[in-house]
Amino acid sequence: MKTKIVKIPVLGDHLVNTYLSIGRRPILVDCGMPSSGDRIWEGVTAAGVDPTDLEIIIITHGHVDHFGAAAELQTRTGAPVAAHEADLETYLAGHSDRTRRQPIGVFGHVFTRTPPPNEVTRPLHPDLILSGDYELERHGVEARIIPTPGHTPGSVSVLLDQGDLIAGDMLTGGFLGLLQYRPSNPPFHDDPVQALDSLQAALNLGPHTLHIGHGGPMPAGDVQRWLDRQNRHRPISLTSGPAERGRTAWWR
C-alpha cells in the first residue's frame, strides 16, 4: 500500500511544515509552534483523517517550532508521542538550550537572537523515548525512524520504504524556507559537521524526495549536489571535536 504524505503548513504555505503520513494507519510528524494546535487539527481533518485516529506522533527534534503544540495534541488526540532521548531534557523543559546553537552565517547570528527560536511551550513528556532505529510497521506505516543527529543531538528523520524522507531540519529551503526549493543550511545547528554527515548517511539509504520543516519538497539528487558543494568547502582538519565543530564560517 502506497503511503500518502500530506504537508500541513502552520506558517505561510511552506515556512513551517508538519506532515501527515497515511498508510494503513495515519501518523503525524512534528507539531509546529505553540500556537499551531488548531491549524494542525484542521489540516489532519481536511485530509480525511479524524485526529483522534492518529496512531502516533513523531517529533523530529527539540526546537519549539517542531514540538510547540506536541503536548496539546498529545492530550487532544490521545496519540502517543515518540521522541529521541538525546533531546529529552529540552522536551521536559518546554524550550531549547540556546547556548548549544552554532549560528551559520550572518542570518544565523541575527536569527538566533529573535523571539521565534526562543519561545517557550508546554513541557512534553514523550510516551515512547527513542534511542536508535524504530520500525513503524507496527503503527501501520511502512517506514522507520532513523537517528540523524547534528541539528540537535536527538534529531531523527522518518524514512518511508517507498523512498520519501521526512527530514526535519537537516537542511531547509533558503532563508528558512523563503526560497522553498533551494537547499540551504538552517540558521544554526548544534553541530554543523555532524548534521551534514547525518544528511549524507540518510541520502546513502536511497530516498528520492526529502520533505523538510521549512520549504521543500526537494529531490534527493538536488540535495546531494548541494551537499557535495558543502563538502568541497569543508577543511580537511575540521572533522571531529566540539571545539573544531564550533567553527562555522565556511558553511554556505
UniProtKB/TrEMBL annotation:
Chain ranges of the Metallo-beta-lactamase domain: 15-214
Pfam families: Lactamase_B (PF00753)
CDD domains found in the cross-reference section: yflN-like_MBL-fold
Listed SUPFAM superfamilies: Metallo-hydrolase/oxidoreductase
PANTHER family: METALLO-BETA-LACTAMASE DOMAIN-CONTAINING, METALLO-BETA-LACTAMASE DOMAIN-CONTAINING PROTEIN
Protein name in the entry: MBL fold metallo-hydrolase
Organism lineage string: Bacteria, Bacillati, Actinomycetota, Actinomycetes, Mycobacteriales
